[in-house]
Amino acid sequence: MNKSFEIVLYYTVDHEVKHMSFNVSPGTSILKFLKENNVSKLTTANEICIGIYGKIKDVDYIIKPDDRLELYDNILADPKIRRKHLART
To answer: Which residues contact 26 (CB under 8 A, 6 or more apart)?
Structure first.
């Protein structure tokens, strides 16, 4: 049974969350998915960071049915440090 399944990739554009659906073959790694679907065009970041349900995954992770892939932007400021600075003012 080599039946493909649908996954959804969530990403942001100008602080707005967008999503796209893709059909993926069983045994597809994140790296293979990124290359086959040219995901780098969805972001302006130099490095792509991707996760499943809020947890960053290695590129050799095998995508499973019902996984929700999330493309993460680089953070501009550490949230903890930012809160400390706001508390001081």
So the answer is: 1, 2, 3, 4, 5
Assessment of whether the complete model's pTM goes beyond 0.85: no
| Model confidence at 14: pLDDT above 90 | no
Report the alpha-carbon distance of residue 31 to residue 63 in Å, rounded: 10
What is the domain extent for residue 43?
5-88
Tally of domains within the chain:
1
CA distance 58 to 64: 14
- End-to-end alpha carbon distance in the chain: 61
- State the pLDDT confidence band at 8, using cuts at 50, 70 and 90: very high
- Which residues 6+ apart lie within 8 Å of 36 measured at CB? 28
